[in-house]
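Listing S7. Sequence submitted for prediction.
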Amino acid sequence: MKKRIQLAFDISWTHVESHWRMPGSWVDQHHPNIGMFEEAARTAERGGFDLIFLGDSTGIPDTWKGSIDDAVRYGVAWPRFDMSPWITAMSRVTSHIGYGLTYSSTFMHPFYTARLLNSMDHITNGRMAFNVVTSQRRADYGNYGYDELPDHNDRYDRLEEFIDVCRALWTSVDPDAFVWDKKTGIVADPAKVRHINHKGKYFKVKGPLSVVPSPQISPIVLQAGGSPRGTKAAAHVADHVFGLTKALPLMVKQREELDVALVAEGKDPEKVGILWSIRIIVGETEAEAIALRESLMEGVPEEAAGVWLSHNSGYDMSQLPPRFSLRELQERIVAANASPVGFVGLLLKKYGEHAEITREEFFRHGLHAATGYSLTIAGTAAQVADQLEEMFEATGRRGGFMISVSQGAPRAIMLNIIDYLVPELQRRGRYRTAYTGRTLRENLAT
């Protein structure tokens, strides 16, 4: 029997937005529209998707030129909402699909977060996933009292302790603790409710969690660490990993490195999948799909791409000289305690650390990344399915794909995936024809 590919829609944001201007976009002058999110959820569930993923950042990008102006002007990484109430609304119009909520372990407290995720797991009847991030974007930090980014490794140390505390809290009340005995008046058995008395480097939490255990006990934990320290953290905390699609040999290498880290943690690598971030455009013909992919970059100014690149790297790309080496740029990013494995890291792996590049060349590559063009597979359903199967097989047949779809994408982009690609994968025995589990955890295991 062929192993099944897992699919998720990432509707949190899509790099530098341009889709909202296209005919058939869900976005209008009344954005946000809860109906837009509800329709996206119903559509994804009709296609049998495992998950709707909602990433997050909380600051308006201001690294580019030290200003928010171009981010505000072109809608780069904003507006953004706390998606927990929106997930509640989407869950009420669906029955099976899961929801991934993002919070930062650098800014949040584990007791509050564990309690919130427990409540949402109840509301969704066991369909919650928690995407825990360390945050590397400078705009976020100013909103939480930071003047500079904390050390990269320290952020991951905190993340590991954060999830350890959350898991201790989620299991601090036994599933059968509550009896609700009307004759005796007993609500719960004290022997099945425990303090956790955690005292660590970053958190001091007494516990227990003051809740009824949720259907999944703990949500599915997702983590996207790609650096060596991030991979170690992902192996420690994650049920599934969120990975960036790149050249296939690099994807294979990341899978291999994660497997080694999982074994070091005493975990079975066969049970931890990678959901590869990707963009897909499916057309009735190849020409139709390619034309739509080419439209991604139409009318996107350099400033918008610069905002996105600077925001995600932690370095002001407006300061780039006419010519520079990729190694020099990466060293500046690392010195700023920002992310060493983003767009610049991928260029390093592709061209080598001693490669030199002009500012013009850099921004041409950057525009491809910022619009999602470089991650986009375009073709007929059969052509796209061929490529997904190749990547799935090469990376160990564990996990699947996180398909990035803008909140404001034309309906046809999402609908073509549901109506053309999903049936093709089903014909190949690669995708479910019906949900068989009760919770997200159960559906991801089948």
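Caption to Listing S7: primary sequence and predicted structure tokens for the chain studied. The longest strand covers residues 273-282. The radius of gyration is 22 Å.
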